[in-house]
From TrEMBL:
This is Nucleotidyltransferase. It comes from Pontibacillus salipaludis. Pfam families: RlaP. The lineage of its organism: Bacteria, Bacillati, Bacillota, Bacilli, Bacillales.
Amino acid sequence: MIEKVRELEREYDVKVLYACEAGSRAYGISNETSDYDVRFIYVHPLDWYLSVEEKRDVIEKPISNQLDMSGWELRKALQLLKKSNPSILEWLHSDIVYDEDEGFMNTVRDLAQKAFNPIAVLHHYHKMAKRNLKELGQGEEVAVKKYLNVVRPVLMCFMIMKSGQLFGINIWYAVDALAHNKRLNEELRSLLETKVHNPSQTKLHRLCHVDAFIEEQMEEIEIYLQNAKRRSVDITKDLNDLFRSTVKKYGQ
């Protein structure tokens, strides 16, 4: 994968500061049919920034049916970081990292934690869970993928409300945190293992403890959001300093 990153740098005349895996592989639920979703942050040479023209700040490069590469330009990435954008936060918490400027990423992760807005992120995952619940339907038998599309954002909310931070996106972390609830833990593991080890099994019967957990958590998320106090940490100066120093470092 690192050679694909180097090829992309040469083709677009950029420096990739960070490249990671996103999607099912980062969530810990990939199987033999899963493709690779590589996401990255990049910086242009200095002259690119010294222009009155508006320029595209995204690179999207599908390589094959099994590999997709997509990235955000440095300024765009830092702007999204300031807003606690869930997509870039997921990138930062991926366990599968292909390439990174360690100093740059240490600063980015520190700033992400400093400015983390749990309300904004919870709203995102809560809306995702509600939307996916409607698609799941009420049938006795449900699609494995659609079930997980509800379970994952609910578990993300559970972990954020539990810790006040986003410490990882691998679903197994949240399942481990529920080890005290034996029956729920067993059903969640069964669901995840079906997705990972039995990709040909596309449907299964509803899991009663998982369903009860989803219903309970959706209510708790709404209560949490109603009562949560908004917090705002302005990291604009820190982001500007990081942006300028990074462009100077790689822009010559």
